[in-house]
Amino acid sequence: MVTKGSGASRAATAGEAMAVVDAHGLVVGWSEGARRLTGYTAGDVTGKPAADLVDGDAAAVRRTLLAHRDAVVDLRYRDGRLQKVALRICPLWGGEGEQRRFVVQAAPERTERGLGELAFAQASMSMSVFDTGQRYLRMNDWACQVMGQPEEEFRHQYFPDTVEDAEHSQGFLRHLEIVVETGRPVRYESWTRSPSGRRMHAWTSEMWPVRDGSGRLIGTALAAFDSSEQFAARQRLALLNEAAGSIGTRLDVVQTARELAELVVPRLADFASVDLLESVLRGEEPEMNPLDGGVRLSRAAHQSPTPGVPEAAIPLGSADVYPPSSPPARALLTGEPVLTGTGDGSLDEWFARHGARSSKLREAEDNVLSLMAVPLVARGTTLGVAVFVRLLTPEHPDAFDMEDVSLAQELCSRAAVCVDNARRYTKERTTALALQRSLLPKTVAGQAAVEFASRYLPALSQAGVGGDWFDVIPLSGTRVALVVGDVVGHGIHASVTMGRLRTAVWALADVDLPPDELLTHLDDLVEHLAAGDGTGEGEIGATCLYAVYDPVDRSCTIASAGHVPPVVVRPDGGVEVVEVVAGPMLGVGGLPFEATEMALPEGSVLALYTDGLVEARDRDVDTGTAALCAALQGPVGSLESACDTVLKALLPETPGDDVALLLARTRALDAEQVAVWNLTDDPALVANARKLATDQLTRWGLEEAVFVTELVVSELVTNAIRYGGAPIQLRLIRDRALICEVSDASSTSPHLRRARSFDEGGRGLLLVAQLTDRWGSRPSGAGKTIWAEQALPPSP
């Protein structure tokens, strides 16, 4: 068969919709393109009349095709729909010039082929086509509307020549170039205004390469849509996420309020203020007492993009009364946010009645604003109110909406919880600090053994006040006890425990126990406290260092319960760390404590401190102790100045732990102020003892004290001979008071008893107690010492 069918075969191979129909109108050939167009496979239609595929008068269609070689028909698709299709036929000639068959070509009708063009022109987003040199080729209607001019004004223009020279324009151009360079689609997001308007928008642009039939890249197409709503949603989420880490960084009420104001300006508002109830600022329970004329609030923070916050009508720290009709008062009293703006009667009236706010508005060039007042509510209690203001301009015409109110409520809710936590912390810290300071010594009277200076610094960290303490306790015989301790933990519990331990030390010191025995009794007490604590913690940890200095023999006896060792500065300026046996911490129980005795020349400075002075996160105890020794190196002048020098050298601006420091300079009694006699246990020597004491008082010029002293010496020496035994020692000390001491070999402590009418004895200690200011006994070596103290007669 001789045909012109070679062209038909090539077309079929190329994928066009083609069919072959014989002289009887039956389908005998069916291309892949025809299958894609109609949905019918070759098996569905081969051998069947072609007329079955046509809707309407098939005979009329056949006559039209034979007469004109083409026609537009309604073709039945396999899915049931009808579609107008343009048909063209080409006869296939037989060997004798007879038309044996027809090749039918089908293509969508012209109006269908123009749908793509219509869709491009009428798209609801900005669409443009650029050549490879970033020059405009096509723009749809929306793109022309965004740019503000018709397509003819942009065609063949270089993109940078049609927009302002800004960062977002340069980014847009660079992404067009990347598509040409890589041949891959890209996405570009920007925040800018369109050339046809003043309002800022977020734009998302999808850019992709355009290729011809051979695959050669001939341009770049883009579709850009306004994504401002999605952008605003992402910004709100980002703001909430940032609030989690930026609000409440410190347990400080004012700092938390400042963090809220700084976070929202300018991202949510152009001005923000945070006003709190005055009771909240004091750390007390919130008390909202509406006045007759409104609610009184104190300005905790405010913020604006302008330095100095000129928009603020109330200075920081000042209080203002908000009338009941004002938005802040309404939000505070109802617990619900208030959304308002210029033109609202209550807002305008409030501004007009408040002179400072009214003048601020008159100063502004454009006073059209949107305002929302959001209460700070935590745990069902209102703590204050935050006010957010947005200035409305042609560039930013959007007033606050409910999405903004919801965001502000979330931020204020978080800030309110942080403010309440800070308030509670402030209250507890203030209470603990007041308790601790009330327990620390103010002045110490009745001792002349040491000159001392001290410092106590509570921690500035969020851990709160700790349980550090120090003490200077006068003892009998002109001796003095120096104490420093540290309770593990912080807060009121640690302060209360510290107070109990300090009281116990005073009680045990009054018994005049040696340092190691005192710590043993204190350790037992801590175990009992832990057993009956009732907190569920089950244990109380504390360290303590107890030192006793005797100015008569210049000796110092020290015992430690897990505490850092003291440092001594010799009179020549040399510094050394005292090697003390560091016993277990108090509360461990069952382990012994050991005392260390050393001689301290007159004028030596003993430094006792807690570990907060020498230990920190970036410094171990040994390094800190070395720094302390360096700070104390050299002769020590004023102890007060020395304390300041040590703290400045060792502590950061915000110490992480409590610090207690006690500096004590030793004094010594001259030999002329002490008289000592060793006696035997012969009762006949009592009279001799009285004479020795009388003669010594005469040499000291204390004749007025002779009568009482003779009686005291007689009674004490007699008791020592009768109940104690040798060796017996009598000692008189003249310091700020006159002290009489008698030592014997018995460890039995004396006690007062009431003698009956006919008893020959039992009245001695009662007389001593009546005639002297103080008396007592203490262990001494293998026995005990009974002492009595009386005031010196006034100087003539």
Fold and architecture overview:
The protein is α+β, with helices and mostly antiparallel strands and 796 residues long. The protein contains 22 helices and 33 strands. It has a 6-stranded antiparallel sheet, with helices on both faces. A hairpin with a 4-residue loop joins strand 21 and strand 22. Helix 9 packs antiparallel against helix 10 and helix 9 packs parallel to helix 15. The radius of gyration is 50 Å and the shape is elongated. It starts with a helix and ends in a 5-residue tail after the last strand.
Features:
single chain, 33 strands, 22 helices, 796 residues, 6-stranded antiparallel beta sheet, alpha+beta
End-to-end gap: 159 Å
Judged by helices, strands and strand pairing, the structural class is alpha+beta
Low-confidence stretches: 1-14, 755-762
- Helical proportion? 25-40%
Could you describe the largest sheet, including whether it forms a barrel? 6 strands, antiparallel
- What's the mean pLDDT score? 84
* Rg over alpha carbons: 50 Å
- What is the approximate shape? elongated
Question: Which strands sit side by side, in order, in the main sheet?
Answer: 2-1-6-5-4-3
Count of helical segments? Answer: 22
Estimate the strand proportion.
25-35%
Got a strand count?
33
